[in-house]
């Protein structure tokens, strides 16, 4: 099955990361994409946390969009911060508390990237949907 989309908006508050994860889990269960839940939840956590910590934009919300298209689940987090685009840090202090979010996204996803929008940006990651995954 292709062509499903789910969008939810969350306040830029720490509890929203948990709420975003719960939303992703519910949608993936409904779409019968259970095998993707663990990776999707971790990616969602990292992208939503980055939106909170690194994107003090003009709004106080971020938008999470899930798209199922042609064998791919796209996870997208959009915020209103437009002055700095996230970059993958290949090196870093392993004792540092942060800085590994996009490394995890890079490791778990088939690909990921950033696209500007007005205002702000959308950070996205793709997870492949196995061909034998049951269609909703």
TrEMBL record:
Keyword list, A-Z: ATP-binding, Kinase, Nucleotide-binding, Serine/threonine-protein kinase, Transferase
Q: Which InterPro entries match?
A: Anti-sigma-factor_SerPK, HATPase_C_sf, HATPase_dom
A Gene Ontology molecular function term of the record: ATP binding
Asked if the keyword Flavoprotein belongs to this entry, the reply reads no
- Output the superkingdom of the source species: Bacteria
- What positions does the domain Histidine kinase/HSP90-like ATPase occupy? 12-125
Classification via PANTHER family: ANTI-SIGMA-F FACTOR RSBW, ANTI-SIGMA-F FACTOR RSBW-RELATED
Protein name in the entry = ATP-binding protein
Look up and give the organism this protein is from. Answer: Streptomyces cremeus
């Amino acid at each position: 099955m292709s062509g499903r989309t789910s969008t939810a908006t969350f306040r830029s508050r720490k509890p929203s990361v948990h709420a975003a994860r719960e939303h992703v889990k519910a949608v993936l269960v409904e779409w019968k994409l259970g095998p993707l839940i663990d990776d999707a939840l971790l990616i969602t956590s990292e992208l939503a946390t980055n939106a909170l910590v690194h994107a003090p934009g003009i709004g106080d919300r971020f938008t999470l969009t899930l798209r199922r298209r042609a064998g791919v689940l796209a996870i997208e987090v959009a915020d209103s911060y437009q002055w700095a685009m996230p970059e993958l840090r290949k090196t870093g202090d392993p004792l540092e508390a942060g800085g590994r979010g996009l490394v995890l996204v890079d490791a778990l996803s088939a690909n990921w990237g950033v696209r500007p929008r007005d205002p702000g940006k959308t950070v996205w990651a793709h997870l492949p949907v196995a061909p034998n995954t049951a269609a909703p």
